[in-house]
Amino acid sequence: MAFAVAGGAGALALELAMARRPDAARLLWADRRVRWGGTALVVVAVPTAVAVGGSPLAVYVVAALLGGLAAYFVLLAGVVSGALAPPETWFENRE
Fold first, then answer.
1. Helix runs in 1-88, H state only
2. CA 47/CA 49 separation, integer angstroms
3. How crowded is residue 5: how many other Cβ atoms within 10 Å of its Cβ?
4. What is the C-alpha separation between 86 and 80, in angstroms, rounded?
5. Are 65 and 8 in contact (CB under 8 A)?
6. Helix (H, G, I), strand (E, B), or coil: what is residue 70?
7. Could you tell me if 7 and 65 are in contact, meaning their C-beta atoms sit under 8 angstroms apart?
8. Fewer beta carbons within 10 Å, N or C terminal of the chain?
9. Mind listing the pLDDT tens digit for each residue in 31-83?
């Protein structure tokens, strides 16, 4: 459970960092190496954990990945439904 929470916290921290500087995040995400590298990391992490560390390590890696994905999808659902403002507006100065 702790690894799932850590994965969720990591996803939220990443989203907060990108919301802080949305222009830099857009530029970074526009780089094909970043998109494919992140996808490859997720696709390779679980099989590698199983092959190298066996079952105990695999459980932790899968829990962290699922926690991160769950947190991201909850955040996405909140933004799409209108319950949350889009991330690029989170740090705007409102006067």
1. 2-20, 22-30, 32-81
2. 5
3. 13
4. 8
5. no
6. helix
7. yes
8. C
9. 999 889 888 888 887 777 777 767 777 788 888 989 999 999 999 999 999 99
